[in-house]
Design brief:
Blueprint: H1 13-27, E1 33-36, H2 43-52, E2 55-58, H3 74-84, H4 99-119, H5 121-131
Parallel strand pairs: 1-2
Helix pairs in contact: 1-2
Length: 132
């Protein structure tokens, strides 16, 4: 995870995206491509990405699609949200009143996940092979 920013529910995704895009580019200067869903198409996100020197690819469902279908790259975000659900403080309800506290809990959960993977690489590799 390169950047996280918790904003109030009244902030629309395209409006909140520029600050996250700038932070991600600052932390990973070689970053060149961003994937987003349909909410991230539009002039606000495009301008922020262009300013940061990034290209945005919007993952949209095919026009002829009926029902549910896994979209390319979209599953990465949904999987990450699923990982957050394993942590009581991040499980669907937001107990924090200060956004920086929520951001800290998200970062701590990702640190915990990475440390567990680093300390048991064989177990992680076995799970990864079973998913393929």
């Amino acid at each position: 995870m390169l950047a996280v920013e918790v904003q109030s529910a009244s902030v629309q995704d395209p409006v909140g995206a520029p600050s996250v895009i700038a932070e991600a580019k600052r932390r990973a200067p070689k970053l060149q491509l961003l994937w987003g869903d349909g909410r991230y198409s539009g002039p606000t996100v495009e301008a922020a990405a262009t300013t940061a020197g990034l290209r945005v690819e919007v993952v949209k469902k095919p026009a002829d699609q009926k029902g549910f279908q896994v979209l390319p790259r979209r599953w990465v975000v949904e999987r990450t949200f699923g990982w957050f659900g394993k942590y009581r403080r991040l499980a669907g309800r937001d107990f924090e009143t200060n956004p920086s506290n929520s951001e800290t809990w998200i970062k701590l959960s990702m640190c915990n996940l990475l440390v567990r993977r680093l300390t048991s690489p064989l177990k992680w590799q076995q799970k990864k092979q079973n998913l393929i």
